[in-house]
Write a structure and sequence with these properties.
By secondary structure, the chain is of the alpha/beta class. It has helices at residues 2-47, 54-82, 95-107, 133-138, 154-157, 174-180, 204-212, 229-237, and strands spanning 84-89, 110-113, 158-166, 189-195, 216-217, 221-223. The chain has 8 helices and 6 strands.
Length: 241
């Protein structure tokens, strides 16, 4: 009886010893696998660079930094794009169009023309005939000539707008009154400019500012059709934009 018990005890001990060895072996394998995983991770980090050395990891980190910086710069780009400049003008004879184009060139601004629904003819602009269309409009403060639909989002796209027009009978053309009354210039800096043979801008800028009723309006200026881009650069550099 005692012999059987001893044999059973020996068997149990052998089983326990075997299980312990198996456990140690399994633990060692886990550790070995863990080491292999860590080593492979290091390999991935170091070989991701061109050199396959530790500098490779530095290049990865640098790339991540560039990506993160890129996200911030993307927002900055969007802010810059949102803060765009527009040169919008009305020109019956082409003189104001020429000056507007030069301003857009030196500022990198978008350029857009206000086109009347009923174009002005040479006869309409005859200063010596009191019955011409332009004369009648300028003598009527309530005249509001219509313009073609403007296909840009002025109010939500631009932070600075140059508004150009010729001087008619010492004033802005009535179509410009129609234009400024059609938009909300809140948060926008507006700079009027005009063209004429000799007359200055007079009260035109103030007239437009009052009719608009919104926006930060700066003092305007008058230019001849032969104004140079350098002259315009000098003028624009002194503006409080």
């Amino acid at each position: 009886m005692n012999g059987k018990i001893k044999r059973i005890s020996v068997i149990i001990l052998a089983i326990l010893f075997t299980m312990n060895l198996a456990g140690c072996s399994s633990e060692n394998k886990v550790k070995e696998n863990d080491i292999k995983v860590k080593e492979s991770t290091v390999v991935v980090e170091t070989t991701a660079g061109d050199s396959g050395t530790e500098s490779g990891k530095e290049e990865i980190d640098s790339s991540v930094a560039e990506i993160e910086a890129g996200d911030d710069s993307a927002e900055t780009v969007l802010e810059i794009e949102d803060a765009k400049t527009l040169v919008i003008y009305f020109s019956a004879t082409g003189t104001t169009k020429s000056v507007a184009g030069k301003i857009a060139s030196v500022t990198g601004a978008d350029l857009y023309e206000i086109v009347p629904k009923e174009p002005y003819t040479d006869a309409d602009l005859n200063y010596n005939d009191s019955s011409t269309r332009a004369t009648r409009e300028q003598n009527d403060p309530d005249a509001r000539p219509e313009f073609e639909p403007i296909e840009i989002d002025i109010e939500n796209t631009y932070s600075t707008i140059f508004i150009g027009f010729p001087i008619w009978w010492g004033q802005e053309p009535r179509i410009m009154d129609t234009f400024v009354e059609s938009y909300d210039f809140s948060g926008i800096t507006v700079i009027p400019f005009c063209t004429s043979g000799s007359s200055g801008i007079g009260n035109s800028g103030n007239n437009l500012s009052e009719k608009a009723g919104s926006g930060k309006w700066l003092d305007g200026n008058r230019f001849s059709g032969t104004v140079t881009e350098d002259d315009l650069k000098s003028w624009i550099s002194e503006l409080d934009i």
